[in-house]
Amino acid sequence: MEDIRAIKEDDQRAFHQVYDRYHQQIHGFILQRTKSEYVAEEVTQLTFIKLWKQREILNERLGIDIQLYGMARQVMIDVLRKEATRFKYEGEYAETPFTDSLVDAIESKDLLQIMEQDIQNMPKMRRLVFELSRKQGLSHKEIATMFSITPKAVEYHIGKALLQLKQHLYSVML
User: Fold this and answer.
1) Domain boundaries in the chain?
2) H-helix or E-strand containing 71?
3) May I ask the CATH class of domain 1-99?
4) In 3-state terms, what secondary structure has residue 112?
5) Measured between alpha carbons, how far is 91 from 83 in angstroms, rounded to an integer?
6) Residue 101 pLDDT more than 70?
7) Which segments constitute the RNA polymerase sigma-70 region domain (predicted)?
8) What is the reported pTM?
């Protein structure tokens, strides 16, 4: 949190410390997903440029690592989409691994992991109600009967669960 505050105050030394601490990790994170050294290097550099350019809006309540990985993920998706478009217009589309389906798969897998972790961290009743509704397809009335609560209480738990997921996903997407 101190790193974030210092970076927000234009402290280049703090920025360089964060860069030194996370450069290899971000590079490995991207390389593992894309299997491309070029993309990994490009995305890593663009991620740190984005960190510096967006320093004023960093969230001091979230760890710098969480924000960096979120930025890296978003930059990676942007770079892969640009590469896919470039290859498509140059007539090399069939030869490139950077297709929309790869981007979509990475995006979906990352989002599902984030959502699943968020669901596991919910209060027990909220998690149970949400999973019964969304994963098992039970109606509000069926869930209410199972737990001896009202259908309105079921709606409340599901609403709170969705709000929690939406808020966290929004913060990750920044």
Assistant:
1) 1-99, 122-174
2) helix 64-89
3) mainly alpha
4) helix
5) 12
6) no
7) 19-84
8) 0.53
Q: What DSSP string describes 75-139?
A: HHHHHHHHHHHHHHHTT-GGG-S--HHHHHHHHHHHHHHHHHHHHHTS-HHHHHHHHHHHTS---
What are 134's two structure tokens?
């969304």
Query: Which residues have C-beta within 8 Å of that of residue 35, sequence separation ≥ 6?
Result: 97
Cβ contact 47:1 at 8 Å: no
Q: CB count, 10 Å around CB of 169? A: 14
Q: Which residue has the tokens 């350019």?
A: 53
Q: What's the whole-number mean pLDDT along residues 94-106?
A: 52
Residues with Cβ within 8 Å of residue 142, at least 6 apart in sequence: 132
Q: How many CB atoms lie within 10 A of CB 46?
A: 17
Q: Give me the architecture of the 122-174 domain, per CATH.
A: Orthogonal Bundle (1.10)
Give the end-to-end CA distance of the chain in Å, rounded to a whole number: 17
